[in-house]
Design a protein that fits this description.
mainly beta; 2 helices; Neuraminidase; four-stranded antiparallel β-sheet; 27 strands
Length: 342
């Protein structure tokens, strides 16, 4: 998951890098097809993932060697953007996986610098946003990879996304809402989404980031936004700034926020939609371990599949982009097909 460092306003550096795990530990001073698993899985799986693109090598071309891929996003042309947390860079590739450019993000507090790379978001037009959660700052690059500006937000957002518009959405409790829309210049345009109800025993923590909203969320390019309730396995799906529906799921990997000594543990999830399937993966503490992907169709949880990575984005053809660590960090794109299809 993640290894963050959290003080009254700062999460630990591993927040994003660790934000890819089953439980996020917060210090508050306190390429083969993948088959379905499970006892009821039929001999021929209903749904199969078939890889059709891999970006990344174990060694050699430095543009293809990654330390830890913690975010993947796409622009309207199908260009692929990945955040390499460990090497502090954003790699940009075309839809065939050919390298276009690399944008370094130095450590620091200058306009182009960040102290914590807590996420990226890419608009359809190719504007790149980089979130520095610790400094409450968003760095903006134009579609050609040129630095444009950085802007500061007067409250903390832990994750960002672009739901099919040129604006950017951030998540974090503020003014009794959890989702906030900013234009590329940093102007707050709207806020929506009610905070999740908090158990009585956690009430003193209600103003902290992870207690009334999750630290990460996902945006579909069709405008939908997917948010996991940190207290129960329920996914809120927003569209046009309104709650469209809620998916209720079951998984032994989901655990509500709980105290462990001086720390709190919270389950994270990556949620994407391809066609009529909503895919949910709870990352594991070991990024190389096999993960379980829950699948929902028509509002119901239908199957669970073993996967080797976490899904981050879906393109206009329904192909899903996973960050994987088996062997070495890489991006793998999969087509979803019916079992037995070629």
């Amino acid at each position: 998951m993640y290894k963050p460092k959290y003080s009254s306003s700062i999460l630990a550096r591993s927040s994003m890098s660790s934000m890819e795990g089953v439980a996020l530990i917060f210090l508050l001073a306190l390429s083969a097809p993948l088959a379905l698993s499970g006892p009821s899985a039929p001999p021929l799986p209903e749904i199969v993932l078939k890889p059709d693109l891999t970006i990344g090598v174990e060694d050699g071309n430095e543009n293809l060697v990654f330390g830890s891929i913690t975010r993947i996003d796409l622009d309207g042309k199908g260009n692929i953007y990945l955040l390499d947390y460990k090497n502090r860079k954003v790699g940009v590739f075309d839809s065939n996986g050919l390298h276009k450019r690399t944008i370094p993000v130095p450590s620091g507090q200058g306009p182009k610098e960040a102290t914590d790379l807590s996420g990226i978001a890419v608009s359809p037009g190719g504007t790149l946003f980089i979130n520095d959660m610790n400094m409450r700052k968003v760095i903006v690059y134009d579609p050609a990879g040129r630095f444009v500006r950085s802007f500061v937000i007067d409250f903390m957002i832990s994750s960002i996304g672009c739901p099919g518009t040129e604006n950017v959405v951030g998540i974090g409790p503020h003014a009794e809402k959890i989702l906030h829309i900013f234009d590329p210049e940093g102007k707050l345009l709207a806020s929506f989404g009610d905070p999740f109800p908090i158990p009585a025993e956690l009430e003193p923590m209600k103003d902290m980031l992870m207690f009334r909203a999750p630290l990460i969320f996902n945006c579909g390019k069709d405008g939908r936004i997917y948010v996991l309730n940190p207290h129960r396995y329920a996914i809120s799906i927003f569209n046009n700034q309104r709650l469209e529906r809620t998916l209720e799921g079951k998984s032994e990997l989901f655990r509500p926020i709980e105290r462990r000594g001086r720390a709190f543990l919270s389950t994270a999830a990556h949620i994407v939609q391809s066609g009529d399937l909503v895919l949910v993966v709870f990352p594991t503490p070991d990024p190389k371990a096999i993960k379980k992907m829950n699948m929902f169709r028509n509002g119901k949880q239908i199957e669970t599949m073993d996967v080797t990575g976490t899904p981050h984005a879906v393109d206009s053809e329904g192909r899903v982009y996973f960050a994987e660590d088996e062997g070495f960090p890489k991006v793998v794109r999969y087509r979803i097909v019916a079992g037995g299809s070629q």
